[in-house]
Fold these 4 entries.
Entry 1:
Amino acid sequence: VKLVESGGGLVQPGGSLRLSCAASGFSFSRSAMNWIRQAPGKGLEWMSTITGSGGIARYVDSVEGRFTTSRDNGRNTLYLQMNNQKPEDTAVYYCSVGSTRGLGTQVTVSS
């Protein structure tokens, strides 16, 4: 299993970023996928899960309505569209399948 996140960076409050997660080594289209994050000095926080078909996605309350998880099973890629970002969204963002996660991508929300 290999997961590689990309797309992080510095964004101003209210701005947007789209993260990608390239997956390989397992049956991507049959696997529910997750986004999790870790803010500075804090533990891992579950953010979102999407079913294998992409038909259902769930979110933690703090990002509901601002973030959207999607997937392209033809490209074995998971996405996280982040809109109206807040300073408290600053964290390292990881995609995960089961107990495996990638190395993460840093997102910093600051003016």
Entry 2:
Amino acid sequence: VQLVESGGGLVQPGGSLRLSCAASGFTFSSYSMSWHRQAQGKEREWVAGISAGGLTNYADSVKGRFTISRDNAENTLYLQMNSLKSEDTAVYFCSVQKGTRYWGKGTLVTVSS
């Protein structure tokens, strides 16, 4: 299993970013996927999840601002982040539970003026 996140960067408050997670080594379309984040000095927290069938759910802190989606033909998971706030600053990880839980190495999102 390999998960590779990309798309992070520096963005001003109120701005947008789209994160991607390229997945390989397993049948991507058969598994639920999720995004998590970890801010400096804090524990990793779940942000959003999407089932194999496309059902989504979100942490209250991002509901209405973030959208998780997947492209099964491209084995890619996405996180569209709008109306970003300084408290969204964190390293963002994609993850899959296939027996054990697998993680990518993360991509840093910094929201600052």
Entry 3:
Amino acid sequence: VQLVESGGGWVQAGGSLRLACATSGGTIAISTMGWYRQAPGKEREFVARIYSGGGTYYADSVKGRFTISRDNAKNTMYLRMNNLEPEDTAVFYCHRLMGDYWGQGTQVTVSS
């Protein structure tokens, strides 16, 4: 199973980005999927989760600004990030709970 993130980049505060996590070698439809991030000098932290039934859960720091979604037909998960803040600067990783698979990460940089 391989997870490949894309969509990261540089954006000014208040801007938006959409991350994608394309999965191959295994379906995402039956597994909880999630996004995590790691800022420089900090530990990796939870961002958002989507369950196989479609339910979602967010870290308080991103609630109301980020939206996690999935397209099972495309075997891809997304993270729509609005109203980005400099504190959101981090490498974002996608995760498939079933089998504990991680992507390589995509950098998000938010300037003030």
Entry 4:
Amino acid sequence: QVQLVESGGGLVQPGGSLRLSCAASGFTVSTAAMYWYRQSPGKGRDFVAQIGTTGGTNYRDSVKGRFTISRDNTRNTLYLQMSSLKPEDTAVYYCCTFTYCGQGTQVTVSS
């Protein structure tokens, strides 16, 4: 069955960087549109980034120029490279297909 396992979250200071990974199984990431979403305490789940089957990408405005979504087809893994992190980026980050999300990984940006 489809499984998505996120990793790479943690505590980072403002201005720092993190790379999130999402190991997929049960399907091939290159054949599906893949997404990163995030959810802060008391808020809904927000779109962060998308990569399509042809490699095209989209980002929410607040992360453009700071975050990069990519995938490694040989590892069947999705990534989110995050730089110039801000406290408002603090959230649980979820890797998703169109219909399924993993359990999430916590990212905390704080000094």
